[in-house]
Please model this.
Amino acid sequence: MKINLLEPSHLDWQNYGPDTRFSYPIGYSGALLSYDGKDHIDLLYRWEPGKYCHFHRHLCEVRSTVLAGSLEVVTFEDGKEVSSIVREVGSYSHMPQGDVHMERGGPEGAVVLFNLYAPDGRLTEMLDETGTTLKTLTIGSVLKQFAH
Model:
């Protein structure tokens, strides 16, 4: 399969916002690129300008590359913000399991490629603003979202 990641309009996008349960504006969507049938899944996410994804914790190893726009990543430890960085186009990151953060699209939004390795099938936990787990995202639940 060939996919032009810089022209992603032909992909099947799932919209995850807005979400009025949170005090920050949610505005992002995701598309499934590939799944190897085992432990690896590739996803493309795009953020609206100035909008966030849900606060979450990684349950697996994640590598990501910013393809368009810019993405602010705010990291938390023990419920407190410990860092905030802006990732520009071309920025590559390897995030370990357990990383707790939220991301926000820059002035033009952002498009980011995510490559996840999840031997137990668990990807992320969506958290409320106090850090309590609301739901666990798994490879199986992602595949169901995109099944037609």
Observations:
- The longest helix spans residues 139-146.
